[in-house]
Design a protein that fits this description.
385 residues; alpha+beta; Phosphorylase Kinase, domain 1; Transferase(Phosphotransferase), domain 1; 2 domains; two-stranded antiparallel sheet; 11 helices; 14 strands; disordered N terminus; disordered C terminus; CK1_Ser-Thr_kinase; Kinase-like_dom_sf; ATP binding; Casein kinase I
């Protein structure tokens, strides 16, 4: 019997299941057994194997999931602990090698301890000529919550989102890595006790910006674009090299999106060519009225101005940025109560302050982690990226 790779039946979906395929002899037997009629006789559909493939010996494929833009995603269950997790796969010869990048980052983060706001890493390897990555199962994305709330968040919710994501970006940057593709679908809520914790995900476009003490050099043109155009920094539209300031700028654009319900430059995405789209978007973002797009949220206005003041290799002052948003939150809480997010009826308690303390502790532990970037990852900083 010959074997091939096919999509599995319902309940065992995925491209990692071996499937039956007929030999020429079997096909001839089917045709000879067919009744003598003018009707075309179809060969019976061959079943896929009943036994699912186990990843790393104990992660069993269970069912497909739909998580934003990622299509090759499946639910897996630990056969030893019954813990559910997420499996993502990609061709191991992929030019981008996104899962390998993400596995590298999550491995590093897992060694730092504390609450990083990144998905827990379980396994990375190769199965059937595909990279497989198993990580913590998370809840809905901010984009999904945005839709549930009628495509508009309150100023307090946006400020709380800003505080948590400034922690996440600081954590990632301390690992010597840029996210480079920040958008609402990349931020997910946790489950259970972490239901009000935001997790930063999808590091398939990530890039090491610092190897030891050496920062990647600035390039004005010719760098590959990686983010969603609406949330990309001005530098990305120009084809310039990105740095930490660009992740912060993408965060600022995302906060504008949550406040206004849409981005002011969405109409500029209708240009006839990709280069014209980027030229129009870059100009729209450069010439925007910062005070107007911030919609009355003063810390957001200051975030935009701060991003534009940073030089390429500068290390952002995440603490000061968070403090500005926290002051705004405190003022709003005096009149609106202490609920953290619009979609949650749970009152904010001491967990918020506990997370702040824990995240600062993690940041301290991570200081100097970027020097741990192995030489084998220098491909991340190639000129074409």
């Amino acid at each position: 019997m010959l074997f091939g790779w096919c999509r599995a039946p319902s309940g065992h979906s995925g491209s990692l299941f071996p499937a039956w395929s007929c030999t020429d002899v079997q096909q001839q037997e089917i045709e000879e057994a067919a009744p003598d009629t003018n009707e075309e006789v179809q060969a019976p559909k061959q079943p896929c194997l009943d036994e699912p493939l186990n990843i790393a010996g104990h992660w069993q494929l269970f069912e497909p999931l739909k998580l934003g833009s990622v299509t090759d995603v499946q639910l897996v269950v630990n056969t030893q602990t019954e813990e559910e997790a997420v499996l993502r796969t990609e061709d191991k010869d992929s030019e981008i090698g996104g899962l390998e990048r993400e596995a590298y980052l999550l491995r590093k983060a897992s060694k730092c301890g504390g609450k990083t706001g990144l998905a827990t890493f379980f396994h990375f390897g190769v199965e059937a000529d595909r990279h497989v990555l198993v990580t913590q199962l998370l809840g809905p994305s901010l984009e999904q919550k945005f839709e549930e709330c009628g495509r508009g968040f309150s100023h307090k919710t946006v400020a709380n989102i800003a505080v948590q994501l400034l922690y996440r970006l600081e954590c990632v940057h301390d690992l010597g890595v840029l996210h480079r593709a920040l958008q609402p679908g990349c931020v997910r809520l946790g489950l259970g006790a972490d239901s009000e914790t935001l997790f930063l995900t999808d590091f398939t476009q990530a890039k090491v910006y610092k190897n030891g003490n050496q920062h990647i050099p600035y390039k004005e043109h010719g760098c590959r674009r990686s983010g969603s155009p609406g949330f990309s920094s001005v530098a990305e539209h120009l084809g310039a090299e990105r740095s930490r300031r660009d992740d912060l700028e993408s965060l600022a654009f995302m906060l504008v999106y949550f406040l206004r319900g849409s981005l002011p430059w969405e109409t500029h995405q209708d240009a006839p060519s990709t280069e014209e789209v980027h030229a129009d978007l870059g100009e729209a973002k450069r010439s925007m009225d910062v005070q107007q797009v911030a919609a009355g949220l003063r810390p957001l206005e200051e975030l935009f101005l701060y991003c534009r003041s940073l030089w390429f290799e500068a290390s952002p002052n995440y603490h000061t940025l968070r403090r500005k948003f926290r002051k705004s939150i405190a003022i709003m809480e005096s009149s609106e109560g202490k609920g953290m997010f619009d979609w949650s009826s749970v009152q904010r308690d001491d967990r918020f302050e506990s997370e702040a303390t824990a995240a600062d502790d993690v940041s301290t532990v991570m200081t100097g982690i970027s020097s741990m970037v192995p030489s084998t990852w220098t491909g991340w900083v190639s000129a074409g990226d």
